[in-house]
Amino acid sequence: MNPDITRERENATFDVEKLTHILDGGIEKTKRRREIESLVISDPDFQSEDLNFLSRSERYDAAVKKSAQMILKLREYGISDPEEIYCYKSCVHRGRSEPLDLHLGMFLPTLLNQASPEQMETFFIPAWNLEIIGTYAQTEMGHGTHLRGLETTATYDPATQEFVMNSPTITSIKWWPGGLGKTSNHAIVLAQLHTQGKCHGLQAFIVPLRSMNTHIPLPGVVVGDIGPKFGFDEVDNGYLKLENVRIPRDHMLMKYAKVEADGTYVKPPSAKLTYGTMVFIRSMIVGEAGHALAKSCTIAIRYSSVRHQSEIRPGEPEPQIMDYQTQQYKLFPLLATAYAYKFVGQYMNQVYHRITGDISQGDFSELPELHALSAGLKAFTTWTASAGIEVCRMACGGHGYSRCSALPDIYVNFVPTCTYEGENTVMMLQTARFLIKSYRQASAGHQLSGIVSYLNESERRLQPQSVSSRPTVVNVNDLASLVDVYKLRAARLVKLAAKSIQQELQKRVSQEDAWNNSAIDLVRASDAHCHYVVVKLFAAKLGEMGDTGIHSVLSTLALLYALQGIQQHSGDFLQTGLLSVPQLSQVSQRLKELLAQLRPNAVALVDAFDYRDEMLNSVLGRYDGNVYEHMFEWARRSPLNKTEVHESYHKYLKPLQAKL
Amino acid sequence: MNPDITRERENATFDVEKLTHILDGGIEKTKRRREIESLVISDPDFQSEDLNFLSRSERYDAAVKKSAQMILKLREYGISDPEEIYCYKSCVHRGRSEPLDLHLGMFLPTLLNQASPEQMETFFIPAWNLEIIGTYAQTEMGHGTHLRGLETTATYDPATQEFVMNSPTITSIKWWPGGLGKTSNHAIVLAQLHTQGKCHGLQAFIVPLRSMNTHIPLPGVVVGDIGPKFGFDEVDNGYLKLENVRIPRDHMLMKYAKVEADGTYVKPPSAKLTYGTMVFIRSMIVGEAGHALAKSCTIAIRYSSVRHQSEIRPGEPEPQIMDYQTQQYKLFPLLATAYAYKFVGQYMNQVYHRITGDISQGDFSELPELHALSAGLKAFTTWTASAGIEVCRMACGGHGYSRCSALPDIYVNFVPTCTYEGENTVMMLQTARFLIKSYRQASAGHQLSGIVSYLNESERRLQPQSVSSRPTVVNVNDLASLVDVYKLRAARLVKLAAKSIQQELQKRVSQEDAWNNSAIDLVRASDAHCHYVVVKLFAAKLGEMGDTGIHSVLSTLALLYALQGIQQHSGDFLQTGLLSVPQLSQVSQRLKELLAQLRPNAVALVDAFDYRDEMLNSVLGRYDGNVYEHMFEWARRSPLNKTEVHESYHKYLKPLQAKL
């Protein structure tokens, strides 16, 4: 054990194990998670060479191998709880996406939700047993977020009772679905349904892609891998071009909408039923943002405690780089953010399950709010976490660029969350739409409920006379007071965005152009709203902490999170008259004090995330802090060192020397 | 040609070709650059498969092959001007780093600068003819930026007149030098010189690493590749462990410092002589930041003009995504930044050459300022450009993640500039040191010269009474007025940082701790200083534009750059009393107008950067805008599609299906 990191642990002021339980959601959950991790890590079937040393084809190969093993073992061990399956899977693939993700996460659930009982009978058991390996093909080359623009067609032919599936244009080629390129033999294809001369919009169809015997693509099916990407080397994201592919009528998923034998289209009872999955995945991503940032902070903070560099005081030994104020200022606010997002993730999960219960009883009332919240928070947290991972990486200096740090991998595997499941800017604007609608209701005197109810309250408090008097009552050392300031900032920026739309309308532009011409303000309002929600939930979480030591260190983190947000957006707080210039100086001063205060607990706070070395897979983030010898050992194993002399020497350099 | 992009070009209001000449530095330079590009692009020896489809070993192999060809052809064509060599090399390797970079860019120049005449005779011709292939080994596992901390030792043994080279610890292993792993047979090794029982600090030694005949590492030399990184797949960044390797006395570079036969150490006449290269490389990086951002903007803006998505007005065709205000707000300020950095790069280049002239005449007076400026600007521009590349990438939606967009490559190849040649935070603090020193001189009544002279002026203007009256005189539509505001912001923040140090000193902490406890403020001050310099140089450049059309569009860009910076840092401008709240609202409003104003010229402005498709190598950034068909074609060529059925199906999936 590196003596520096031992000393850091000795200086901690709280019980690390207890904090781990809080993060896991209880002592029993910690125990079970560790059991599952041990099960995977000690399993010889899941040992493999460092993925960084493999080609893409080898990485895909290794992932398919592990996924196949995983399916067998989950059944062998009888692991069936969705959360436990997720945990097992994350361990097997070390948090990476894998070729069967969409089979397990989209194909099977979509069957469960949208197949008729007869269809369940036909498809579910074969899919469960991986005779049918499926994916979910929605995105096309020309259309991602805008679903109505999808161009793939399914035209019903009553003569044969078949749908004729087509990709009529180059932009209509399905593009990106995971597992589509090489792994799947079926896909649920989203296509525009045409029957009896009319288009009835998007429906889902089960389309066989490859022979069940030979795995060779079926006639009319042009399918393949979309080529190398920024990360996601293990996944065969694919393309699919359909050329007059005929499928039987019962291959359209018919639990809700239906096409009868003669081609008559029967509408579904409600359009809201397919909302759920989307909201669930976005809520999950918020927790993933916390997770990705927590891993990055673990690596950067442990490394900062064992790396010594330069000098603060001449003549003295080189300090740990964590002693530099600039290093603390890079890492500690991100550590606070990681905690914040983990807690918000827990909250979203609870809300989702509560609301799902309501929905199953036919109560959709809270869905719009959850939809708006999950959209905005997904964007807010993924943007911040992505940028934060890179800050952590660069805080490790040169070694952060080595694949052995694991940080490049964390980045390329996480950053796509900014784009998939709803492009972030579009998400922010969806939340803004809900905020503006709520604001207008509040202005019209309606009483709002839920998280936006502050728009009522602030409508009253934000009258000009009260604005000028506010700064004096804010206490920058009091979290409750800061939550209040974040709330008022959000209210103010929602109002500003609404005003911008109003001003545009007065120029006689259309509603739609007024919206587009105010989009910058709308995104800013959503951002402030999400920031308020995060600060509020972090503060609320503190109320649940019984342990004094933990309460104390998490209060410091929460305060740091809130104050750093204010410093970064100081213009907003000044512009809206919520804080004064002297108060901002106080904020800066207090921030520095908080950094120094957190310093002794920094390593313990990342230890509490409880990532085993095998899961983190980072030489810089090792628990024992012995980074240099392991970096050397890792490098020596790398492929270019398999021979002392690379063949290119004989092929090019030696001949060149002879010619000069 | 895609009709959308044709229409964009028709709408441009200025002469693109003339702007290209300005960016190149004159019509003749444009002509010559294009000649060199054509020479490389039409050369069959430089055709290769898409690098994205190769393994790392294959990419290294391809790069060595091209570099060997390049050396031969440069001589064949008689290209010897350094700028032209650089241009040719960039074309051959498409802007990527390559295995001979350090031989050409560091080994040969270091010989030229630091070898004695006798050493030149021994080493230069063999090195010129690549008999000796060299690299420059400075960074160690444990030390990067802090050179005094390097641990490699060179101990003089007068008995044999040799130096004994050692890597005494694991942290002393040389780590990162490009070309060290497999390519080089020699290295200039920076090591602590020990002779006659005393350490004389860092000296440079020529150390043979591999046999000149077999390329096998010599006894005592442990050398290899450091393993895969975030990008830089073509370069064999290496490690080097020296175990009692003996080199003759004349292998220490002895133009300045010397060790005599008996071991007597002779000091160099001036320590400033080795400063130059560092300053030059940092200045170059500023231009590279403009270059990387220009390429990214070219891709994202062209793609935004041909990509249609969603709807602004219901029922109408899907708009080009460049019509969304949020898209404009992402891309146009970055476009302005790319222009700004290109102009700053030109300026730095000129200043460097002027000052180098002075230095060669023994005049070092301007060196400290250039040193400080190049350090800060290197950090300021590389941080912004790195983040900006990712914004461009994500503005391309899902397709920005595909390697065929080229954006992932631009990012991983550029982002290391934030760390190498001086870690950015350390660079900012170096600039801050110069600023604080200058501020103290100004406060003591000294008249400053050069770029920091504003610290004199503002010291007078920033008296409290004038502050409160300032906001009224700022004109947010006048660039000169904005330059002034940036200047005062910088002055204010330098003063704040100085005040912070003062306050710390009053708490009786040491100078060094006071500095560290104020580091956040110091970085902020440097940042503001650099921002001022960039705005000022952009404004100054406008004065050189004779063409009305070009002057007009670049003025819009410069104004956009200045106003967006104010909006992003509005807290600074409000906090220092330089702008009022109503003025900030004006800034926001004006920004939106500028985005709309730039919209018709956006494609033409990236066309003016004049990147040939072969250089950009981006499907999304194609000049003809025909992105989708080429994306499909690219994907079909990718390695996973070489077989219809991947072997993993037979190895794992079919057996799994049989077991379930």
TrEMBL record, chains A, B:
A biological process term (GO) from this entry: fatty acid beta-oxidation using acyl-CoA oxidase
Stored InterPro entries: ACO, ACOX_C_alpha1, Acyl-CoA_ox_N, Acyl-CoA_Oxase/DH_mid-dom, Acyl-CoA_Oxase/DH_mid-dom_sf, Acyl-CoA_oxidase, Acyl-CoA_oxidase_C, AcylCo_DH-like_C
Keywords: FAD, Fatty acid metabolism, Flavoprotein, Lipid metabolism, Oxidoreductase, Peroxisome, Phosphoprotein
Residues at the catalytic site: E421 (proton acceptor)
Residue span, Acyl-CoA oxidase C-alpha1 domain: 275-436
Biological pathway: Lipid metabolism; peroxisomal fatty acid beta-oxidation
GO terms for MF: acyl-CoA oxidase activity; FAD binding; fatty acid binding
Pfam families named in the record: ACOX (PF01756), ACOX_C_alpha1 (PF22924), Acyl-CoA_dh_M (PF02770), Acyl-CoA_ox_N (PF14749)
Compartment(s) where it occurs, according to its Swiss-Prot or TrEMBL record: Peroxisome
Positions contributing to FAD binding: T139, G178
Residue span(s) of domain Acyl-CoA oxidase C-terminal: 478-656
Residue stretches making up the Acyl-coenzyme A oxidase N-terminal domain: 15-133
Name of the molecule in the record: Acyl-coenzyme A oxidase
